[in-house]
């Protein structure tokens, strides 16, 4: 027992020495040690999958949107341009499968809603008609008003999260009644959100900011509360990449980003097993 306490005391003395040495001598040792602790306890990095897709030459237009069919291992990409395939289909490993140019004119958003019994892909196209269940659409800055509502997603509690890009905020509604539940605006003072998606465990939102070429991980609030927006970490993309819309694989947590500036879709995967955080 005495030997144990001697070891504890020695470890404490060693750490105190590192603190003093770093403070007065500028040693990088403690900084590296502290970073390692922070990285392991707070931030698990994503990395860019440089091998995805295997054939980027199929990106022949402006890539506006991306959707992941996790049940079937497929990635759908919508692109705009003249005389090009409007929808591209890849495997999650990045292999090109097929493309089509019929029925779609100017894709803006795409959503995979496949079940065990059928594959279903929904595409928002300029001029398309939809059945309206409830509607909030008045232009303005107040609650339940919008300025470029650009992306929408659902959480497991039945809340609808809307990227109100022009107003630099995310608004939240009840999915059944349309009741306004609250808004986040403290995280988006520089640039409004262009896309928002939840991680598979529902603990975080991945948010794209178009003109900043930035992705952020934001802590999701508990059920029954909206609270304040809290950014956990960010990833800065290259200038003028312009992330337009993104999608998160519900099984692996991989993030696919449609970049209208770079005219490509990039894939970010967790370094370890799925844990939803980026490295700043």
From TrEMBL:
<dbReference type="InterPro" id="IPR001258">
    <property type="entry name" value="NHL_repeat"/>
</dbReference>
<dbReference type="InterPro" id="IPR050952">
    <property type="entry name" value="TRIM-NHL_E3_ligases"/>
</dbReference>
<feature type="repeat" description="NHL">
    <location>
        <begin position="137"/>
        <end position="176"/>
    </location>
</feature>
<dbReference type="GO" id="GO:0000209">
    <property type="term" value="P:protein polyubiquitination"/>
</dbReference>
<keyword id="KW-0677">Repeat</keyword>
<dbReference type="GO" id="GO:0061630">
    <property type="term" value="F:ubiquitin protein ligase activity"/>
</dbReference>
<protein>
    <submittedName>
        <fullName>NHL repeat containing 3</fullName>
    </submittedName>
</protein>
<dbReference type="InterPro" id="IPR011042">
    <property type="entry name" value="6-blade_b-propeller_TolB-like"/>
</dbReference>
<dbReference type="Pfam" id="PF01436">
    <property type="entry name" value="NHL"/>
</dbReference>
<dbReference type="GO" id="GO:0043161">
    <property type="term" value="P:proteasome-mediated ubiquitin-dependent protein catabolic process"/>
</dbReference>
